[in-house]
Amino acid sequence: MRAALRRVGAGLWAPRAPQPAPGPRCGGTGPAPAPRCWSCGSALPGDEGLPRFCPGCRALQPPGPRPDLFRLMACDRSFRVDAQQLQRRFRSLQRAVHPDRFGQRPPEEQYYSEQHSSLINKAYQTLLNPLSRGIYLLELHGMEPAQETDCDADSMFLIEIMEINEKLAESKSDGILEEIDTLIKVKQEELTREVAAAFERDDLQEAKKLLAKMKYFANLKDKLKNKKIPS
User: Fold this and answer.
1) 93-132 pLDDT, tens per residue?
2) Contacts by 84-89, CB closer than 8 A, 24 or more apart
3) CA dihedral of residues 77, 115, 222, 229 (deg, nearest 10)
4) pTM reported for the whole predicted model
5) 3-class SS at 145?
Protein backbone atom coordinates (compact mmCIF):
# COMPACT_ATOMS: atom_id res chain seq x y z
CA MET A 1 0.00 0.00 0.00
CA ARG A 2 2.78 2.45 0.94
CA ALA A 3 4.63 1.64 -2.30
CA ALA A 4 1.50 2.40 -4.30
CA LEU A 5 1.11 5.76 -2.52
CA ARG A 6 4.73 6.63 -3.27
CA ARG A 7 4.19 5.91 -6.96
CA VAL A 8 1.10 8.14 -7.02
CA GLY A 9 2.95 10.91 -5.23
CA ALA A 10 5.85 10.72 -7.68
CA GLY A 11 3.42 11.09 -10.58
CA LEU A 12 1.85 14.18 -9.00
CA TRP A 13 5.21 15.91 -8.67
CA ALA A 14 6.71 14.89 -12.05
CA PRO A 15 7.65 17.89 -14.25
CA ARG A 16 5.27 18.52 -17.13
CA ALA A 17 6.31 19.00 -20.74
CA PRO A 18 5.21 22.28 -22.35
CA GLN A 19 1.56 22.03 -23.35
CA PRO A 20 0.27 23.59 -26.60
CA ALA A 21 -2.25 26.39 -26.42
CA PRO A 22 -5.83 25.04 -26.43
CA GLY A 23 -7.29 24.68 -29.90
CA PRO A 24 -10.83 24.43 -31.18
CA ARG A 25 -12.95 21.49 -30.00
CA CYS A 26 -14.62 19.07 -32.38
CA GLY A 27 -18.25 18.11 -32.42
CA GLY A 28 -19.72 21.41 -31.21
CA THR A 29 -22.37 23.26 -33.15
CA GLY A 30 -21.33 26.77 -32.10
CA PRO A 31 -18.28 28.78 -33.13
CA ALA A 32 -14.92 27.43 -32.03
CA PRO A 33 -13.53 29.16 -28.93
CA ALA A 34 -10.78 31.68 -29.54
CA PRO A 35 -7.27 30.34 -28.82
CA ARG A 36 -5.77 31.58 -25.58
CA CYS A 37 -2.27 32.26 -24.33
CA TRP A 38 -0.64 29.29 -22.61
CA SER A 39 0.86 31.70 -20.03
CA CYS A 40 -1.82 34.22 -19.01
CA GLY A 41 -4.98 33.00 -20.74
CA SER A 42 -5.50 36.11 -22.86
CA ALA A 43 -7.31 35.71 -26.19
CA LEU A 44 -4.90 35.47 -29.11
CA PRO A 45 -5.11 37.05 -32.57
CA GLY A 46 -6.35 34.67 -35.23
CA ASP A 47 -3.25 34.55 -37.45
CA GLU A 48 -2.05 30.99 -36.80
CA GLY A 49 0.39 30.91 -39.70
CA LEU A 50 2.90 33.31 -38.17
CA PRO A 51 4.86 33.42 -34.91
CA ARG A 52 2.44 34.87 -32.39
CA PHE A 53 3.12 36.80 -29.21
CA CYS A 54 0.43 37.20 -26.58
CA PRO A 55 -0.98 40.76 -26.65
CA GLY A 56 -1.31 40.60 -22.87
CA CYS A 57 1.94 39.16 -21.49
CA ARG A 58 4.00 39.09 -24.74
CA ALA A 59 4.75 35.38 -24.33
CA LEU A 60 5.72 33.53 -27.51
CA GLN A 61 3.05 31.02 -28.52
CA PRO A 62 3.64 27.53 -30.00
CA PRO A 63 3.61 27.11 -33.80
CA GLY A 64 0.51 25.72 -35.44
CA PRO A 65 0.31 22.01 -36.31
CA ARG A 66 0.55 22.32 -40.13
CA PRO A 67 1.63 25.85 -41.08
CA ASP A 68 1.60 26.98 -44.70
CA LEU A 69 5.28 27.58 -45.48
CA PHE A 70 4.47 30.10 -48.21
CA ARG A 71 2.34 32.12 -45.82
CA LEU A 72 4.95 31.88 -43.08
CA MET A 73 7.58 33.30 -45.44
CA ALA A 74 5.21 35.96 -46.82
CA CYS A 75 5.35 34.51 -50.35
CA ASP A 76 2.60 33.94 -52.87
CA ARG A 77 1.74 30.28 -53.25
CA SER A 78 3.60 30.03 -56.54
CA PHE A 79 6.58 28.18 -57.98
CA ARG A 80 8.22 31.52 -58.76
CA VAL A 81 9.68 33.17 -55.65
CA ASP A 82 11.84 36.21 -55.04
CA ALA A 83 14.99 34.77 -53.44
CA GLN A 84 16.07 38.11 -51.96
CA GLN A 85 12.65 38.75 -50.45
CA LEU A 86 12.68 35.21 -49.06
CA GLN A 87 16.06 35.80 -47.44
CA ARG A 88 14.92 39.10 -45.88
CA ARG A 89 11.86 37.40 -44.44
CA PHE A 90 13.97 34.55 -43.09
CA ARG A 91 16.32 36.93 -41.28
CA SER A 92 13.46 38.98 -39.88
CA LEU A 93 11.66 35.95 -38.46
CA GLN A 94 14.83 34.46 -37.01
CA ARG A 95 15.62 37.73 -35.24
CA ALA A 96 12.17 37.64 -33.62
CA VAL A 97 12.16 34.03 -32.40
CA HIS A 98 15.78 32.86 -32.20
CA PRO A 99 16.42 30.78 -29.04
CA ASP A 100 19.23 33.14 -27.96
CA ARG A 101 16.58 35.76 -27.21
CA PHE A 102 14.70 33.46 -24.86
CA GLY A 103 17.49 32.22 -22.59
CA GLN A 104 15.96 33.97 -19.54
CA ARG A 105 12.35 33.15 -20.38
CA PRO A 106 10.26 30.27 -18.96
CA PRO A 107 11.09 26.75 -20.22
CA GLU A 108 7.88 26.68 -22.29
CA GLU A 109 8.90 29.75 -24.25
CA GLN A 110 12.43 28.43 -24.76
CA TYR A 111 10.94 25.24 -26.18
CA TYR A 112 8.55 27.15 -28.47
CA SER A 113 11.34 29.40 -29.74
CA GLU A 114 13.34 26.31 -30.74
CA GLN A 115 10.29 24.93 -32.55
CA HIS A 116 9.73 28.21 -34.41
CA SER A 117 13.40 28.54 -35.34
CA SER A 118 13.49 24.99 -36.72
CA LEU A 119 10.26 25.58 -38.67
CA ILE A 120 11.57 28.83 -40.18
CA ASN A 121 14.79 27.10 -41.27
CA LYS A 122 12.74 24.32 -42.87
CA ALA A 123 10.47 26.82 -44.65
CA TYR A 124 13.42 28.81 -46.00
CA GLN A 125 15.29 25.77 -47.31
CA THR A 126 12.12 24.24 -48.79
CA LEU A 127 11.09 27.35 -50.70
CA LEU A 128 14.60 28.38 -51.75
CA ASN A 129 15.33 25.14 -53.61
CA PRO A 130 13.28 24.73 -56.83
CA LEU A 131 12.97 20.94 -56.45
CA SER A 132 11.73 20.95 -52.85
CA ARG A 133 9.54 23.99 -53.58
CA GLY A 134 7.85 22.20 -56.47
CA ILE A 135 7.34 19.01 -54.46
CA TYR A 136 5.80 21.05 -51.63
CA LEU A 137 3.46 22.78 -54.08
CA LEU A 138 2.29 19.39 -55.33
CA GLU A 139 1.62 18.31 -51.75
CA LEU A 140 -0.46 21.45 -51.16
CA HIS A 141 -2.51 20.45 -54.20
CA GLY A 142 -3.10 17.02 -52.66
CA MET A 143 -0.76 15.14 -55.01
CA GLU A 144 1.74 12.48 -54.09
CA PRO A 145 5.38 13.63 -54.06
CA ALA A 146 7.25 13.31 -57.34
CA GLN A 147 9.26 10.09 -57.69
CA GLU A 148 11.99 9.25 -60.16
CA THR A 149 9.76 6.48 -61.55
CA ASP A 150 7.30 9.15 -62.74
CA CYS A 151 9.46 9.73 -65.81
CA ASP A 152 10.43 6.12 -66.54
CA ALA A 153 8.45 6.20 -69.81
CA ASP A 154 10.85 8.80 -71.23
CA SER A 155 13.50 6.43 -72.58
CA MET A 156 15.60 9.17 -74.20
CA PHE A 157 15.87 11.01 -70.89
CA LEU A 158 16.89 7.84 -69.05
CA ILE A 159 19.58 7.13 -71.65
CA GLU A 160 20.91 10.66 -71.17
CA ILE A 161 21.08 10.14 -67.39
CA MET A 162 22.83 6.79 -67.85
CA GLU A 163 25.44 8.34 -70.12
CA ILE A 164 26.16 11.15 -67.63
CA ASN A 165 26.46 8.59 -64.84
CA GLU A 166 28.95 6.56 -66.88
CA LYS A 167 30.98 9.64 -67.74
CA LEU A 168 31.02 10.65 -64.09
CA ALA A 169 32.12 7.19 -62.97
CA GLU A 170 34.94 7.09 -65.52
CA SER A 171 36.15 10.67 -65.09
CA LYS A 172 39.74 11.07 -63.90
CA SER A 173 40.33 14.80 -64.27
CA ASP A 174 39.01 18.04 -62.84
CA GLY A 175 38.31 19.29 -66.37
CA ILE A 176 35.81 16.50 -67.08
CA LEU A 177 34.13 17.03 -63.72
CA GLU A 178 33.75 20.75 -64.46
CA GLU A 179 32.24 19.86 -67.82
CA ILE A 180 29.72 17.55 -66.14
CA ASP A 181 28.96 20.20 -63.51
CA THR A 182 28.19 22.77 -66.21
CA LEU A 183 25.95 20.30 -68.02
CA ILE A 184 23.99 19.53 -64.84
CA LYS A 185 23.51 23.24 -64.09
CA VAL A 186 22.20 23.90 -67.61
CA LYS A 187 19.76 20.98 -67.38
CA GLN A 188 18.56 22.08 -63.94
CA GLU A 189 17.93 25.62 -65.17
CA GLU A 190 16.00 24.31 -68.20
CA LEU A 191 13.85 22.04 -66.04
CA THR A 192 13.20 24.85 -63.53
CA ARG A 193 11.81 27.04 -66.32
CA GLU A 194 9.67 24.18 -67.62
CA VAL A 195 8.30 23.39 -64.15
CA ALA A 196 7.41 27.06 -63.62
CA ALA A 197 5.51 27.10 -66.92
CA ALA A 198 3.68 23.87 -66.05
CA PHE A 199 2.51 25.24 -62.69
CA GLU A 200 1.42 28.51 -64.28
CA ARG A 201 -0.89 26.66 -66.69
CA ASP A 202 -2.07 24.36 -63.83
CA ASP A 203 -0.67 21.26 -65.53
CA LEU A 204 0.20 19.46 -62.30
CA GLN A 205 0.84 16.08 -63.92
CA GLU A 206 3.43 17.62 -66.23
CA ALA A 207 4.97 19.49 -63.31
CA LYS A 208 5.22 16.20 -61.42
CA LYS A 209 7.01 14.49 -64.33
CA LEU A 210 9.46 17.38 -64.68
CA LEU A 211 10.17 17.39 -60.94
CA ALA A 212 10.94 13.68 -61.19
CA LYS A 213 13.56 14.55 -63.82
CA MET A 214 14.94 17.24 -61.54
CA LYS A 215 15.43 14.57 -58.88
CA TYR A 216 17.71 12.64 -61.24
CA PHE A 217 19.90 15.71 -61.76
CA ALA A 218 19.90 16.46 -58.02
CA ASN A 219 21.25 12.95 -57.44
CA LEU A 220 23.89 13.48 -60.12
CA LYS A 221 24.88 16.72 -58.40
CA ASP A 222 25.35 14.85 -55.12
CA LYS A 223 27.48 12.21 -56.83
CA LEU A 224 29.59 14.94 -58.39
CA LYS A 225 30.20 16.52 -54.97
CA ASN A 226 31.28 13.18 -53.52
CA LYS A 227 33.57 12.34 -56.46
CA LYS A 228 37.13 11.94 -55.30
CA ILE A 229 39.97 12.74 -57.70
CA PRO A 230 43.29 11.02 -56.93
CA SER A 231 46.07 13.53 -56.27
Assistant:
1) 999 999 999 999 999 999 999 999 999 999 999 999 999 9
2) 86/124, 86/127, 86/128, 87/124
3) 140
4) 0.79
5) coil
